[in-house]
């Protein structure tokens, strides 16, 4: 059936973060190719939202939700359609108009309004085609993370190196790709933090979703690359490593995990600068997110690569 999608209220389509490697420094975990001249890893709001939108092709429409279908799902690659507490109560009320008309009218906008994209960057290879085969020029094709990374048994990101305060930070930036207040029902934000040090570069992509009284969701993707030659403690230089972790908890389970149930504690701007006199200062949001339970990843997105 027909489905319409809306973009986040604030979308930075001109924002782009890009890392490009020449042939001698190609990404080792992305495979090899004799015709490859460079490999690019980039992060953009457009690509993140395209991957989010693509998942809707496999999600059930409103009409199919109560029907069994092998082609439709309620969750595909982490994209699902949530209901707020008010929407759940409203759906249980008797309808005053024709039910078929109401269903048909609402189905067009039946989509994941939390913008929970499974995005984990875009990988593009720039190819120098073989002229002897009758082909000339440069060609690009996107990989977009699926089945192109070599799965690893453990993380190869040396966090002790990133925590070494003796190493100066040559470049740091925090780039926001999109954000939305979910019609005053919570918050979603996708941002990229980059850090360049004398011996390495590091990227943290974080998608944070809070739907008040429904769930809290955090999806993090970490990239690391060591400069130089050889290897250090099993970390190969000039090779890009990636760690992916998804965390999520239903709101009613927060208390059992000793996590706050007040929505204000999960707002990014509320726990900065302390609390009012006489009140306990809530923990920083980052420390709360670290305590969320880990959930399963899509099959085509390995935990370590």
What this model shows, in words?
It is a single chain. The chain has five helices and 15 strands. The chain has a seven-stranded antiparallel sheet, with no helix packed on it. The model is unreliable at about 30-35, about 65-70, about 100-105 and about 270-280 (pLDDT under 50). The chain has helices at about 45-55, 85-90, 100-105, 160, 285-290, and strands spanning about 10, 15-20, 35-45, 75, 80, 120-130, 140, 170-180, 185-195, 200-210, 215-225, 230, 235, 240-250, 295. The protein is mainly beta and about 300 residues long. The longest helix has 11 residues, at about 45-55. The radius of gyration is 22 Å and the shape is globular. Strand 9 (about 185-195) and strand 10 (about 200-210) form a beta hairpin. The two termini are about 35 Å apart.
Mean pLDDT: 81
Let me know the largest β-sheet. Answer: 7 strands, antiparallel
Number of strands: 15
The low-confidence runs, each spanning 5 or more residues with pLDDT under 50, are: 31-35, 66-72, 99-106, 271-280
Order of helices and strands: EEEHEEHHEEHEEEEEEEHE
Overall geometric form = globular
Alpha-beta classification: mainly beta
- Approximately how much helix is present in the residues? 10-25%
* CA-atom Rg in angstroms: 22 Å
- Kindly report the spatial arrangement of strands forming the biggest sheet: 1-8-9-10-11-14-15
Q: What's the number of helices?
A: 5
Gap between N and C termini: 37 Å
Q: Which range does the strand content fall in?
A: 25-35%
């Amino acid at each position: 059936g027909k489905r319409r999608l809306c973009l986040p209220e604030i979308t930075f389509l001109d924002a782009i973060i890009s890392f490009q490697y020449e042939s001698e420094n190609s990404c080792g975990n992305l495979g090899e190719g004799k015709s490859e001249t460079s490999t690019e890893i980039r992060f953009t709001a457009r690509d993140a939202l395209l991957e989010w939108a693509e998942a809707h092709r496999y999600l059930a429409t409103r009409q199919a939700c109560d029907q069994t279908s092998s082609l439709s799902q309620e969750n595909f690659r982490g994209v699902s359609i949530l209901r707020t507490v008010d929407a759940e109560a409203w759906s249980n009320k008797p309808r005053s108009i024709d039910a078929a008309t109401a269903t048909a009218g609402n189905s067009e906008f039946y989509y994941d309004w939390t913008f929970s994209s499974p995005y984990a960057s875009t990988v593009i290879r720039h190819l120098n085609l073989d002229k002897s085969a009758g082909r000339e020029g440069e060609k690009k094709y996107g990989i977009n993370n699926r089945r192109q990374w070599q799965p690893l048994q453990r993380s190869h990101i040396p966090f002790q190196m990133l925590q070494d305060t003796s190493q100066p930070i040559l470049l740091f930036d925090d780039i926001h790709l999109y954000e939305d207040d979910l019609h005053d029902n919570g918050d979603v934000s996708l941002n990229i933090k980059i850090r360049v040090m004398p011996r390495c570069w590091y990227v943290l992509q974080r998608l944070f979703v809070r739907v008040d009284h429904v769930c809290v969701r955090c999806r993090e993707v970490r990239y690391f690359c060591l400069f130089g030659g050889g290897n250090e403690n099993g970390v190969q230089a000039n090779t890009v490593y990636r760690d992916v972790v998804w965390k999520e908890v239903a709101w009613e389970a927060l208390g059992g995990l000793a996590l706050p149930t007040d929505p204000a504690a999960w707002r990014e701007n509320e726990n900065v600068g302390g609390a009012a006199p006489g009140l306990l200062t809530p923990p920083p949001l980052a420390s709360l997110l670290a305590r969320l339970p880990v959930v399963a990843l899509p099959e085509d997105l390995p935990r370590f690569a």
